[in-house]
Amino acid sequence: MAQESRQPSPYGPDDQIGMLNEITPLKVVEAARLVRQGRVYDLAHVLDEKVPAFPGRTFRQSLTTSAHLLNRRRPDAGAAGWGANNVNWIVELVSSTSQLGTHLDALNHLQIGDRCYNGHTLTDLAEEWGTNKLGIETVPQIITRGLLLDIARLHGRERLEQGYVISVADVTTALKRQEVQVKRGDAVLFHTGWGDLWMQDNETYLSGEPGPGIDAALWLVEQGVALTGCDTWSFGPVPPEDPAQPFVVPQTLNVRHGLFIVENLSTAALAHDQVHEFMLVLTHAKLRGATGAWVSPVAIV
């Protein structure tokens, strides 16, 4: 792989949302027609300070409770709070990166050298508060047709092994067995069983992962897939297919193709119920210049 990417986006020189352009209004209507039963599957894990996190990434949450004291000193204070109704409140303070828990990566997160999606460089984009382009605030809220490819079940396993490379043959065979086809603008999610380790064996969970290899990733691009994700902490096998190219799968998808990735998905319930096609709804906070956002995507059938 070249050390930098100047590859322009097929969606134009000013594009910031990559393959999410493939989600058209007609695609949203198609997704909505998949809802027949009203069953909702939560695809997110609970986030707290004990979740497995990539080295250097931490989560800290604490309560601030001074209102209980200060409200009693107001001129119109009640016996135990503000006013005759004694109202009080608590709020929390969170110190964390968006790059842990179930989260959506923005296209400013990964680079080849210092070059991001659509030829932008960090020299041009970086500000003290984030980046002036490609931040998570540029990403639209996502509603589309979702597919779950259960690669663990395909191989008769509860969990694929660390470093397992999901191949194009795995993908096409799973699609055939599940009797679904990939269409442009779809979200294609992978179930490997690795997510069963979440909060059960965090050390093993973080020690590696199975995932789509580079050929399978490029196959997704060729199909016009708008979004992908896995029940793992990154996307792609760890250790990688080529030891000299760490994290080349998400790097290639983000930087060269603008294909968005969701990490740390909770796919076990979908896989257990053998739900393979659904309406995916993924919304996120629009924090300017951030490299990602915590999300709680849902699959609706």
Summarize the helix and strand pattern as letters.
Answer: HEEHEEHEEEHEHEHEHEHEHEEE
For the biggest sheet, the summary is: 9 strands, mixed
**Second-tier CATH architecture of the largest domain:** 3-Layer(bba) Sandwich
Return the CATH class of the largest domain.
Alpha Beta
- In DSSP terms (H or I, runs of 4 or more residues), the helix count works out at 9
Strand order of the largest sheet: 1-15-13-7-9-11-12-4-14
Radius of gyration: 21 Å
CATH superfamily descriptor of the largest domain: Putative cyclase
- What structural class should be given to the helix and strand makeup? alpha/beta
β-strand number: 15
**How much beta, percentage-wise?**
15-25%
Coarse morphology:
globular
State the distance separating the first and last CA atoms: 41 Å
Helical amount: 10-25%
Taking all residues together, what is the mean pLDDT?
A: 96
Q: Could you name the CATH topology of the largest domain?
A: Glucose Oxidase, domain 1
Question: Could you walk me through the main structural features you see in this protein, from its secondary elements to its overall organization?
Answer:
The chain is an alpha/beta fold. It has two domains: 18-56 and 97-300, Glucose Oxidase, domain 1 (3-Layer(bba) Sandwich); 59-95, no CATH class. The protein has helices spanning 25-32, 67-70, 122-125, 151-154, 168-178, 202-207, 214-222, 248-257, 268-272, and strands at 40-42, 59-64, 91-96, 103-105, 126-127, 130-131, 142-150, 165-166, 187-191, 211-212, 227-230, 260-263, 277-282, 292-294, 298-300. The strands form four sheets. Strands 1-15-13-7-9-11-12-4-14 form a nine-stranded mixed β-sheet. It has a two-stranded antiparallel sheet with strand order 2-3. Helix 7 runs parallel beside helix 8 (248-257). The protein is globular, with a radius of gyration of 21 Å. The chain starts with 24 loop residues before the first helix and ends with a strand. Mean pLDDT is 96; it is low at 1-5.
